[in-house]
Design goal:
Number of domains: 1
Largest sheet: none
Number of strands: 0
Distance between the termini: 28 Å
Shape: extended
Helix content: 55-70%
Protein backbone atom coordinates (compact mmCIF):
# COMPACT_ATOMS: atom_id res chain seq x y z
CA UNK A 1 0.00 0.00 0.00
CA UNK A 2 1.19 3.46 -0.87
CA UNK A 3 2.61 5.38 2.12
CA UNK A 4 0.77 8.51 0.95
CA UNK A 5 -2.54 6.69 1.24
CA UNK A 6 -1.63 5.52 4.73
CA UNK A 7 -0.93 9.09 5.78
CA UNK A 8 -4.26 10.22 4.32
CA UNK A 9 -6.04 7.52 6.32
CA UNK A 10 -4.26 8.57 9.51
CA UNK A 11 -5.11 12.22 8.81
CA UNK A 12 -8.82 11.38 8.38
CA UNK A 13 -8.79 9.41 11.63
CA UNK A 14 -7.17 12.30 13.51
CA UNK A 15 -9.70 14.78 12.10
CA UNK A 16 -12.71 12.57 12.81
CA UNK A 17 -15.02 13.26 15.74
CA UNK A 18 -17.41 10.46 14.80
CA UNK A 19 -17.31 8.04 17.74
CA UNK A 20 -18.94 5.27 15.75
CA UNK A 21 -16.26 5.45 13.06
CA UNK A 22 -13.46 5.63 15.62
CA UNK A 23 -14.88 2.67 17.55
CA UNK A 24 -15.09 0.66 14.33
CA UNK A 25 -11.46 1.47 13.56
CA UNK A 26 -10.48 0.40 17.08
CA UNK A 27 -12.26 -2.89 16.54
CA UNK A 28 -10.67 -3.47 13.14
CA UNK A 29 -7.22 -2.79 14.55
CA UNK A 30 -7.81 -4.97 17.59
CA UNK A 31 -7.65 -2.04 20.00
CA UNK A 32 -11.17 -2.36 21.31
CA UNK A 33 -11.42 -2.95 25.03
CA UNK A 34 -15.01 -4.15 24.73
CA UNK A 35 -15.62 -7.83 24.18
CA UNK A 36 -18.15 -8.12 21.36
CA UNK A 37 -19.84 -11.03 23.14
CA UNK A 38 -20.87 -8.82 26.05
CA UNK A 39 -22.49 -6.40 23.60
CA UNK A 40 -24.73 -9.03 21.97
CA UNK A 41 -28.39 -9.23 22.96
CA UNK A 42 -29.32 -12.25 25.06
CA UNK A 43 -31.39 -13.93 22.34
CA UNK A 44 -28.44 -13.78 19.94
CA UNK A 45 -26.16 -15.42 22.52
CA UNK A 46 -28.73 -18.17 23.04
CA UNK A 47 -28.96 -18.78 19.28
CA UNK A 48 -25.19 -18.92 18.89
CA UNK A 49 -24.78 -21.31 21.80
CA UNK A 50 -27.60 -23.48 20.46
CA UNK A 51 -25.94 -23.65 17.04
CA UNK A 52 -22.60 -24.55 18.64
CA UNK A 53 -24.28 -27.34 20.60
CA UNK A 54 -25.84 -28.69 17.40
CA UNK A 55 -22.43 -28.72 15.72
CA UNK A 56 -20.90 -30.49 18.71
CA UNK A 57 -23.58 -33.20 18.30
CA UNK A 58 -22.68 -33.55 14.61
CA UNK A 59 -25.95 -32.03 13.43
CA UNK A 60 -24.40 -29.37 11.22
CA UNK A 61 -24.13 -29.27 7.45
CA UNK A 62 -20.57 -29.48 6.09
CA UNK A 63 -19.28 -26.26 4.58
CA UNK A 64 -18.49 -27.92 1.24
CA UNK A 65 -22.11 -29.08 0.90
CA UNK A 66 -23.49 -25.62 1.69
CA UNK A 67 -21.16 -24.00 -0.84
CA UNK A 68 -22.10 -26.61 -3.44
CA UNK A 69 -25.80 -25.89 -2.95
CA UNK A 70 -25.33 -22.11 -3.01
CA UNK A 71 -23.28 -22.27 -6.20
CA UNK A 72 -26.35 -23.61 -8.02
CA UNK A 73 -28.09 -20.24 -7.65
CA UNK A 74 -27.31 -17.01 -9.43
CA UNK A 75 -27.81 -13.94 -7.31
CA UNK A 76 -28.39 -10.58 -8.96
CA UNK A 77 -25.58 -8.08 -8.59
CA UNK A 78 -26.85 -4.81 -7.19
Amino acid sequence: MDITLKYKIVEKIIQSNDEKVLNEIKTILGLSEIDFWSELPGHVKVSINSAKDELDRGEGIPHALVMSEISKYRFPVT
